[in-house]
From TrEMBL:
<keyword id="KW-0552">Olfaction</keyword>
<dbReference type="InterPro" id="IPR000276">
    <property type="entry name" value="GPCR_Rhodpsn"/>
</dbReference>
<keyword id="KW-0716">Sensory transduction</keyword>
<dbReference type="GO" id="GO:0071396">
    <property type="term" value="P:cellular response to lipid"/>
</dbReference>
<feature type="transmembrane region" description="Helical">
    <location>
        <begin position="63"/>
        <end position="81"/>
    </location>
</feature>
<feature type="transmembrane region" description="Helical">
    <location>
        <begin position="144"/>
        <end position="166"/>
    </location>
</feature>
<dbReference type="GO" id="GO:0004984">
    <property type="term" value="F:olfactory receptor activity"/>
</dbReference>
<feature type="transmembrane region" description="Helical">
    <location>
        <begin position="237"/>
        <end position="257"/>
    </location>
</feature>
<feature type="transmembrane region" description="Helical">
    <location>
        <begin position="199"/>
        <end position="225"/>
    </location>
</feature>
<comment type="similarity">
    <text>Belongs to the G-protein coupled receptor 1 family.</text>
</comment>
<keyword id="KW-0297">G-protein coupled receptor</keyword>
<protein>
    <recommendedName>
        <fullName>Olfactory receptor</fullName>
    </recommendedName>
</protein>
<feature type="transmembrane region" description="Helical">
    <location>
        <begin position="101"/>
        <end position="123"/>
    </location>
</feature>
<keyword id="KW-1133">Transmembrane helix</keyword>
<dbReference type="GO" id="GO:0004930">
    <property type="term" value="F:G protein-coupled receptor activity"/>
</dbReference>
<feature type="transmembrane region" description="Helical">
    <location>
        <begin position="277"/>
        <end position="296"/>
    </location>
</feature>
<dbReference type="InterPro" id="IPR050402">
    <property type="entry name" value="OR51/52/56-like"/>
</dbReference>
Amino acid sequence: TMVGPNGNESSATYFILIGLPGLEEAQFWLAFPLCSLYLIAVLGNLTIIYIVRTEHSLHEPMYIFLCMLSGLDILISTSSMPKMMDIFWFNSTTIQFDACLVQMFAIHSLSGMESTVLLAMAFDRYVAICHPLRHATVLTLPRVAKIGMAAVVRGAALMAPLPVFIKRLPFCRSNILSHSYCLHQDVMKLACADISVNVIYGLIVIISAIGLDSLLISFSYLLILKTVLGLTREAQAKAFSTCVSHVCAVFIFYVPFIGLSMVHRFSKRRDSLLPVIMANIYLLVPPVLNPIVYGVKTKQIRQRILRLFHVTTHTSDP
């Protein structure tokens, strides 16, 4: 049971984060590869942002949206990894109730923002391929900035009720969370009251954000495919090459998210390791893979990375 500040047993003041259920002895060593992946994610995404910012030729909608994606990837991984390392290396499993709320809001709202940016990138590819003559007038840099702001506002607005819905719940059972960080699905299951409102709210958010965005992205690619099939082989190859990186980013983001949502909805065991692994994959794999995918598949970025590496090695020579 949990004793609140007023002495009753229905208000949580802190939670316990297990980390990796059943692997407590191995957590110390598992933290090293996880920390390495986190550093790779941060360095990779910072490199993308630096290259796009310093190369004037890359000041185009597609690359500006990519910078937004990289910034969100850094924030999403940073919202969970430092605390996760604290758990694995120093066994600091306690997280205060308000800190848990902040982390939960950050993770969920940033995910909503990333979904919106991926949708904006799909719209950019649609206009560039299906209406190339209008691309420069439709997606001006001020309009791209407004789309970025809209993504931030939308993600934050969708998650604004989340702290209210969690704070209204009484917690009188256990305070042990089965994950390495705070998730709405995990926290609400600890409540000793009806959580129907939270469940419905979660479904509304998933359908109105992730569901709608993925549907619109699919629809945009159907229109792109229809246009591309009417082009010459050379034009088809060029059009497909500009879309490959974005399609990979979409799959990298949505597949773990949908998988995690399904596991949470249908998993009955709280001590199961699968949801925890899925949750860690969801927060860490996209930030690691996105810079690699765009670095390998996007010629302009690949050339700048190679040039940056060449300059660094050249200047270090005696």
